[in-house]
Each structure stands twice: as C-alpha cells, then as structure tokens.
Automatic annotation (TrEMBL):
GO terms for cellular component: membrane. This is Short-chain dehydrogenase/reductase 3. It comes from Protomyces lactucae-debilis. Pfam families: adh_short. Belongs to the short-chain dehydrogenases/reductases (SDR) family. Catalyzes the reduction of all-trans-retinal to all-trans-retinol in the presence of NADPH. The keyword Kinase does not apply.
Length: 368
C-alpha cells in the first residue's frame, strides 16, 4: 500500500518510482494486453513503409508478438497472485468500515511517524486516540484525543482504555507504533537498555493487544497494525537489541494473524505489518554523522502515508518501505555469500551514522 507516485514524490525519483511505473505498464494486463492486440492487428495488415525497418520479412513479425504474449501472460499471473494473496491475508472475507464511527488507537503518537499518521487519519474524519509517555509536540487535531500512557504498563493502558471508551467509544483499530532505537555494540549493552528496548518494541504488543483486542473479537471487526522494521529481516551491526525486538514483533504479528482465524474464529479482524527502512525521525536527524550524512532516508510522511493507507483500506497488508527492499523478505533463504554480503552492506550504511548513545524515551524515533 505504499505510494505509487512516479514523479514529484517527496523522496524523489528512485527504484520505487520505476516499480510504480511497472505497476501501470508491465504488471497491468490492460496495458500488456493492449500492446499484444496492437501487434496482432499490425501483423495481419499490409506492411507500411514506416514499419519496413522493423518488420523486414514476414517471418520476423512473430518475435514482438511472442514477447508481448509472454508479458501479457506474466501480468495475468501477477494479478492472479495478488488476488490469492488478498484472499489469504483477509481470510477470504470482506468487511465494512464507517470512518465516522471507528476509533483508532495509535501508540507513540506524540511525534514522528505516529503523530503524522494521526493527523492524516483525522483529516479523513477518523476519531483518533493517541497514546504516548510524552506530551505531544504540538496541539492535536480537533478529532484526536491524547492520553499520557506507558505501553509497558498494563495498569496505565487499562486506565487509558477506560477514558478512551468514555471520550470516543469502542476501539476498533490498534496501531502498535511505539518504539525506541539504540546504537551500541553487543558487548556494551546494559541490562537496562536491553530490557527497555524489548519492553517497548515487543512485549508492549502483548499488553496493548490483550487490552484492546477482546472488544474486536466480540464484534468480529477490527484491525491491528504492527510497525516493525527492515531490521526484522536484516539486523544491522550496532543495533542488535533493536533488530532482535523488531524480529520478535514480526513473530508476534504472525502468531496473531493465525490466532485471529483459528483460535478466535474472527476472520474479519485484520492484521497488518509495516517494515520501514531508514526514516527521517527525530533520532535519526539527531545522530547523523556531521562529516557524512549517511544513507538516504525516507521522509516521515512517506511512511506515515503508507500506514494511513493500510488503515483506511480496512484490509490486511504486508508493506516493505521502500518497495525496492522487498528482497529482504527472501534473504533468509539465500546462499550465505549473498546473505552475508547484504549484511556487510548494511554494516557499512550504519557506520555512517553517529549512533553511539542514540536512545529515545518513546515513539518511533528510529526506523530501520
């Protein structure tokens, strides 16, 4: 559900721009089929002077048609695969969302990605409850209520939930967005650092889901979104606890997806996961090496827009950001020479950041 803008995107022209262009051309049966029909029609018509240089003799007319036929077939297969994926992700059932009545809870909503997702949803008329241990950096929109809450405390979440129900109504969407990042070699990790990263980035998902999901189960209606990271798939050097916590969050999401269907028999509850790469959040901006600005990072609105689109779709999704890093999902099955080469490349990228001591109290400060 990432943006498919080709030109004029906030992150500039990139590999994702080419992939978006391919969505409208090579992966689109209407386009590939149109090209095929055009060539078939031309093959039956008398040769014109303009085409003589292309189709020198009649026997050579078949190769463009053969190539176009292959692309048309592949585009049909791609559409069929996408449909089967939709059916699998959404348990083969549809559901209706009334965004004037739905209540969306976003953790880590005081700044960064969480705050922007909240603003985008509010602009669409949604009722949003923002949770964070810190006060918001700016005044929330009129249709958003902010609650100071600690996602690592069951008592704090329960207190916030009671107030949300009074103020906004029953929670139908939960976006587990709160997270912290750190930068330290494994031998320099302290107990406090390890426990804090795991508590906020992973264990808190148990607490929020156990607090807000029962109401969704009762109504067989809801959506739980996990904000993971590309570090779930490729854990970078110096970010071991962050990568470990995000891999755990991904495992939690996968188990939750199966339990919704097989334990609770609530096929209309949606589960989505987002894997962003480097994103320009406060922590990243504060720890970029002054001598070398490091790898290219995505605009916070690029990630926030993708999350908001997933929520508003009312459907389950798996999103890699940028789309060009989707190969990370297949990395575990690759030969060691390739896999370790990718890990070495990420190590070089991370080394260009000044990550020593990079730690945030709340919110999605570091996404990779």
């Amino acid at each position: 559900m990432a943006s498919r803008k080709i030109f004029g995107h906030r992150d500039g022209f990139s590999q994702d721009s080419l992939m978006a262009l391919n969505d409208y051309t090579g992966n689109n049966p209407l386009f590939t089929g149109g090209v095929l029909l055009y060539l078939l029609n031309k093959a039956q018509a008398p040769l014109s002077r303009d085409l003589l240089s292309w189709f020198r003799i009649r026997e050579n007319r078949t190769w463009p048609i053969s190539i176009a036929s292959v692309f048309f077939g592949l585009s049909i297969l791609k559409q069929a695969s996408d449909w089967l994926s939709w059916k699998a992700r959404n348990n083969g059932v549809t559901d209706q969302y009334d965004w004037t009545r739905e209540v969306v809870v976003i953790t880590g909503a005081s700044s960064g990605i969480g705050a922007r997702v909240a603003e985008m949803l509010c602009a669409k008329g949604c009722k949003v409850a923002g949770l964070d241990i810190q006060q918001p950096l700016k005044t929330p929109p009129a249709n958003m209520k902010f609650y100071v809450a600690d996602v690592t405390s069951r008592e704090s979440l329960k207190k916030a939930h009671v107030q949300i129900q009074k103020d906004l109504g029953a929670v139908t969407v939960l976006c587990n967005n709160a997270g912290i990042g750190n930068g330290a070699p494994i031998l320099e990790h302290t107990d406090n650092l390890i426990n804090k990263v795991m508590a906020i980035n992973c264990v808190s998902h148990y607490y929020t889901v156990q607090e807000f999901m029962p109401g969704m189960v009762e109504r067989n209606h809801g959506h739980i979104i996990t904000i993971a990271s590309m570090a779930s798939l490729v854990s970078p050097v110096g970010l071991s606890s962050y990568g470990m916590s995000k891999a755990a969050a991904m495992a939690f999401h996968e188990s939750l997806t199966m339990e919704v269907k097989y334990v609770h028999n609530t096929p209309k509850i949606r589960t989505s996961i987002i894997h962003p790469l480097w994103t320009k959040t406060p922590l990243i901006e504060g720890h970029m090496n002054e001598k070398n600005k490091g790898p290219k990072v995505m605009h916070v609105d690029t990630v926030a827009e993708a999350i908001a689109n997933v929520i508003l779709s009312g459907e389950s999704h798996t999103v890699m950001l940028p789309r060009s890093v989707t190969i990370g999902a297949a990395l575990r099955g690759m030969p060691d020479w390739f896999k370790l080469g990718v890990h070495s490349a990420t190590a070089a990228e991370v080394s260009r950041f000044d990550t020593e001591g990079a730690m945030a109290a709340s919110g999605p400060r570091l996404h990779m």
